[in-house]
Amino acid sequence: MKISVLTGRYALSGVPLAQMRFSRALARAGHNVDFLIGLVNACGMPPAPQNVRTIVLGKARVSSMLVPLVRYLKHHKPDVVFSAGDHLNAIVMLAAILAGSRAKISCSSRVTPFDTYSRVLLSKGWVLKWVMRAVMWRADVLTCVSRDMVLQYRQVIPNAPHRCIYNIVDDQQSRQRMMESVDDPWLLERIGPILVAAGTLEPWKGFGDLIRAMSLVPVEIGARLLVLGDGSLRDELRALIDKLGLQERVKLVGYVDNPLKYFKNASVFVLSSHVEGLPNVLVEAMMCGCTPVATDCPTGPREVLQNGKVGYLVPVGDEVAMAGAIVQAINAPTAVADLKEAIRPFSEKNVLMQHFALLGIPSQYEGE
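Above: the chain's sequence. Below: its structure in token form.
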């Protein structure tokens, strides 16, 4: 089957990485897969998944992808198109209408609609909402990456038909990458419990909250925190670490191309976000054996942690509660069997089966 997977801009972050992983899974299942990218960021071209053709359209804006997508759909005639992100989803559906494409289309939403759409007349979010309502009939399936997001869409768009399907997180390549060696001295020393956090250093990730929480974790526990990632708040967060005297307890590692190997060598993963779609990084850390501590932010962490059954949930921005949960996670880690069961819905097999079932297409997993 000819399948196209789309992302607006390739960067080393959640949505494009999830789409690349999805492309890889479809190719492994025996399909002819194109991975279409609007533009590649400074991080460079993604590693080409085996048996996947990568096509870069060279368009910085999602709206400018419309004409190339119309041409692509007319010329290549895919059987199925998977896209992610509401702005791109709208363009894909419009392109399919203009091209007269007969492809089945599955559009996934990755960000809460409360942040995507607006009631302000003629604002960008307001226009997008009405464009989406006009073209969403063309999608065969509309999905969200968390159950809470499905409920939110039904508040924003009356009778929204969205269904929940998680991203693929647990696959063979990820399992291999988490076994790679690390050379960070804190991990090599293995003195005291190691905590890890990862994400772009931006306000909505709440890393300032996490650093302040670390100042409340008793020194005698010996816990140290590695923060993986880069962003606009790097200097501000470094200054906060210095101000609180945490230089020996908190380290900003910067960008790493394989966070999984850090997770595998840590005890606790902390998600301090103020908002998420579905935090893949939280699932990745659990796959690597980390006990999770996460803010109860919209949307996703409560679902992933099963209402706190397989980890520790804390209120957003509550540094005292976060510090307490970190201590609990160190003293009473989540059982490996519970972590394994919690990430099962994010396996390659389960996710592909759900997508194909909703599209009415037989999959090689049927009958297993």
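The mean pLDDT is 92.
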